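TA notes. Do not distribute before section.
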Amino acid sequence: MRPEVLTRDDAILRLSKRLAALAGPRKSTCRFAAEENVLCRGFARFSDDEIRQRYGFLGEAPRAELERRADEWHVTRLEIERAPTACDVQQHFVETCRGWNEFTNQELARFCRDILGDRVVVIGHRPLPAVT
């Protein structure tokens, strides 16, 4: 059986819907990814210094508290932007990461397999990195 061909946008839409359902309304995708070791691994991918650089605007705190605050901040952003996941918000605002733009088409295809159980090939161009 041949894999289904999806555009980047279609793959992201499918993943966003599923991840939002898995994380639930009170947990950010970043926290979920860290707890479940999926996608980019969320907060877990950052060293202590990196998480403080990215989320320092939330104040000084021990790492666990900073992650808790970051999770709440992401959940609030989801509500404000009416977006399903932190990846969707950060793809457009690039505040703490590049969201879906962090991932190659091959990575998105692997996420579709691992998270959705779908065998797909993802096509389309990934946007250029944001200038920081």
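Switch to the second chain here.
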Amino acid sequence: MPNSSLLLVLLRHGESEWNLKNLFTGWKDPDLTPKGIEEAEAAGQRLRARGLAFDLSFTSALIRAQHTLDLTLAELGQTGLPIVRDQALNERDYGDLSGLNKDEARKRWGEQQVHLWRRSYDVPPPGGESLKDTVARALPYYCQQILPAVLGGKRVLVVAHGNSLRALVMVLDRLTPATIPSMELATGVPIVYRLEADSTVESKDVLTD
């Protein structure tokens, strides 16, 4: 893999306290579990093992992503790396579902309705965002802030959330509104993209070990 190619790494935060409890989290702000801390440290170790280092990082306004980034950078020996935090990279806002157990939500609204809110592209839960809404804020941020840094030669690490990162993967992997909702991003697993100068993907490597 040529070192001259442009580096962008995406990382979903480690397991959070509410992931463990099977709660809809959204813009709520629980921290990492002990397992989540281990996942974040392991992500840094995998990146280090491949000789990767960074010039700039981006994360959300939520503690689970920020803590994951801090732990990952500590493993890389890069604790002084510039960090840009922005709520454009926040998780999808689950509105009235936030803080509810997913099984309780199914009992309240029905399996089919909750599945529609979770897995459709453009149907938002009450008071919340659809995946389409999340894409509408995360993707412009990627195009205006993150991508120019990558194309300018900076090695960039983005630590965010399952749904905000789906927005970035959607454009990188050329997925459609029909295919993106079913794509899962594992917690604490770095996705290493090498980009061409025209911003298309040269290669993609998911670091599962």
